[in-house]
């Protein structure tokens, strides 16, 4: 487990280099006292492990930029891929505050060694396109959602895909969450595409998306707390947390109405990764407990694939 005595830890993502796991995570000082303030004070930390349990902390990967940068308010969740020439690419969420509202877009930093990162001069590389996606207008959602990029290579070798937490610009306000999408040939220039799912499935937003092939089947993982479920789904669902569903292709389309809960709100931002034995496991951050927000990252938890999605293995 990764637990920092002086800081809250929450969203995270992995890169694997040989037998070593690199963990990138959001953290903020507990000296803020109120964990609700942590989002505006987040830095991207870095740690390494050989077993997904014992972590050695390394120098931080990223901090927010100087105004008027697209990430001058915060640097949030992302993903890491290795380009065809061996350079590592870290895609991350940049937030900028406008009149008290956080406007989000996607940035890029690169590294030769996973340790020292340099922000790309052409940032941001993607932002919400109003042809399909909601832009903040002061009357709908509480921010402009365009975050948590999950980047992966096209299975047919046709460039790269990015799945993004976004909201469409139509429909009931509490039910606009979709799998937003962008494509690139070179990991630098990105074109925003229509969403890979439809709204109306009961989610205000689909946070921290991930798609993997587990036991030969495509699995989409996302996260949504009870507070961000639609009014209708709140009546039929026991709560929120980590969700999953089975799909036909890693590039969608995804039927979000088929999603089933993998955890409750006590665990959040589930991430799938293979352990040293090649088995799929889930890590998540400890979210809510009896005394409020916890803010630490769990040990790996074995998962099984059921007919409708992932299941935590018991025992």
Automatic annotation (TrEMBL):
Per the record, the coiled-coil ranges are none
Glycosyl hydrolase family 32 N-terminal domain residues:
18-220
Which keywords has UniProt assigned to this entry?
Answer: Glycosidase, Hydrolase
- InterPro entries reported for this sequence: Fructan_Metab_Enzymes, Glyco_hydro_32, Glyco_hydro_32_N, Glyco_hydro_beta-prop_sf
Statement: the UniProt record of this protein carries the keyword Transport: no
Which Gene3D superfamilies does the entry mention? Answer: Glycosyl hydrolase domain, family 43
Q: Which family does it belong to?
A: Belongs to the glycosyl hydrolase 32 family.
Q: Which PANTHER family match?
A: BETA-FRUCTOFURANOSIDASE, INSOLUBLE ISOENZYME CWINV1-RELATED
Q: What is this protein called?
A: Glycosyl hydrolase family 32 N-terminal domain-containing protein
Q: What is the lineage of its organism?
A: Bacteria, Bacillati, Actinomycetota, Actinomycetes, Propionibacteriales
């Amino acid at each position: 487990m990764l637990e920092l005595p002086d800081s809250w830890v929450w969203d995270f993502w992995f890169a694997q280099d040989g037998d070593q796991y690199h963990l990138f995570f959001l953290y903020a000082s507990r000296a803020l006292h109120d964990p609700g303030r942590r989002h505006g004070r987040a830095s991207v930390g870095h740690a390494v492990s050989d077993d997904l349990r014992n972590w050695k902390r390394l120098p931080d990967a990223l901090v927010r930029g100087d105004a008027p940068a697209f990430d001058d308010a915060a640097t949030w969740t992302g993903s890491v891929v290795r380009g065809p020439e061996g350079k590592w690419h870290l895609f991350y969420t940049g937030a900028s505050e406008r009149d008290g509202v956080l406007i989000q877009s996607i940035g890029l930093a690169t590294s030769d060694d996973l340790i020292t990162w340099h922000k790309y001069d052409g940032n941001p590389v993607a932002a919400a396109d109003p042809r399909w996606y909601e832009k903040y207008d002061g009357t709908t959602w509480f921010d402009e959602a365009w975050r948590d990029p999950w980047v992966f290579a096209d299975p047919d070798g046709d460039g790269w895909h990015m799945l993004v937490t976004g909201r469409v610009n139509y429909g009931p306000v509490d039910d606009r969450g979709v799998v937003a999408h962008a494509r690139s040939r070179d990991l630098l220039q990105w074109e925003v595409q229509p969403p890979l799912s439809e709204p109306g499935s009961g989610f205000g937003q689909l946070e921290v998306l991930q798609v993997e092939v587990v036991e030969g089947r495509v699995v989409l993982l996302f996260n949504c707390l009870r507070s961000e479920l639609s009014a209708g789904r709140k009546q039929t669902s026991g709560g929120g947390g980590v969700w999953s569903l089975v799909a036909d292709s890693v590039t969608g389309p995804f039927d979000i109405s088929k999603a089933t809960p993998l955890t409750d709100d006590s665990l959040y931002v589930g991430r799938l990764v293979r352990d040293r034995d090649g088995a799929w496991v889930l890590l998540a951050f400890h979210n809510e407990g009896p005394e409020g927000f916890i803010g630490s990252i769990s040990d790996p938890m074995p998962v099984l694939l059921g007919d409708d999605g992932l299941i935590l293995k018991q025992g």
